[in-house]
Write a structure and sequence with these properties.
It comes from Parapedobacter koreensis. About 50% of the residues lie in helices and about 20% in strands. With about 180 residues, it is an alpha+beta fold. Strand 3 and strand 4 (about 110-115) form a beta hairpin.
Length: about 180
C-alpha cells in the first residue's frame, strides 16, 4: 500500500510540474525596450536542489550511520567516491544552468548564454540554418561563420523566439519544432 501511495505522489507531482512549466512556456520577459529575455525552466532549479539534498543527505548518512564493517567499508568508500562527486556536480551544474542559461532577443539578433555564463551572439542576417536535436532536447542555430548556438527547448518563451525567427527566416521555423 505504501508503494502505491508513493508512486501516486511521485507521478502526480511530476505531472503537475510538467503541466505548470508547459503553461509558463509561452512567457518571455521584456527586459528593456527592444530586448526580450527567454528564461530557463524552473525544473532545473528543482533538480539542482534535489541533487544538493542528496549530497548533504549522503554525507549526513555516512556520519550518523558510519561506513559499515570491514567487509562493507571499501564498498562504501568506493560508492561515496562515485556518488558524491556526481551529486555535487549535478547540483552545481543544474543550478548554474537555471541561473545563467538564457537567450536575449533583439531586433538585430540574439545572444545565447550557457550554464557557465559564456555567450555567443548571432545577427539575424548571419543565421544559415537551424534544427532540433531530439537527443539533447535543444534547438541548434548555425551561423554563416560556423558558430553553433544551442538553445534549450525548455526555455520559457520559445514561441517568441520562433516568431522572431519567422520574421527573418520563415523557412527555418518548422525545423526548430520537436518532431
Amino acid at each position: 500500500m505504501q508503494t502505491i501511495i508513493t508512486t501516486f505522489l511521485i507521478v502526480s507531482t511530476v505531472s503537475t510540474l510538467y503541466w505548470w512549466t508547459n503553461q509558463q512556456g509561452n512567457n518571455a520577459t521584456a527586459v528593456s525596450p527592444g530586448v526580450t529575455l527567454l528564461k530557463n525552466n524552473v525544473f532545473f532549479a528543482i533538480l539542482g536542489y534535489v541533487c544538493a539534498a542528496m549530497f548533504v543527505g549522503l554525507i549526513a548518512l555516512a556520519s550518523f550511520v558510519g561506513l559499515g564493517d570491514e567487509d562493507d567499508f571499501w564498498y562504501a568508500i568506493a560508492s561515496f567516491a562515485i556518488v558524491l562527486p556526481l551529486t555535487g556536480y549535478g547540483c552545481f551544474y543544474c543550478l548554474a544552468y537555471y541561473r545563467r542559461h538564457r537567450v536575449e532577443l533583439t531586433a538585430g539578433g540574439m545572444t545565447v548564454y550557457d550554464a557557465w555564463g559564456c555567450s555567443k551572439t548571432a545577427a539575424w542576417a548571419d543565421i544559415k540554418s537551424a534544427d532540433f536535436n531530439s537527443f539533447m532536447n535543444e534547438i541548434r542555430v548555425y551561423t554563416k561563420d560556423g558558430e553553433r548556438l544551442r538553445i534549450s527547448s525548455l526555455l520559457y518563451g520559445l514561441d517568441v523566439f520562433r516568431a522572431e525567427l519567422a520574421k527573418h527566416h520563415p523557412y527555418l521555423v518548422q525545423r526548430t519544432l520537436r518532431p
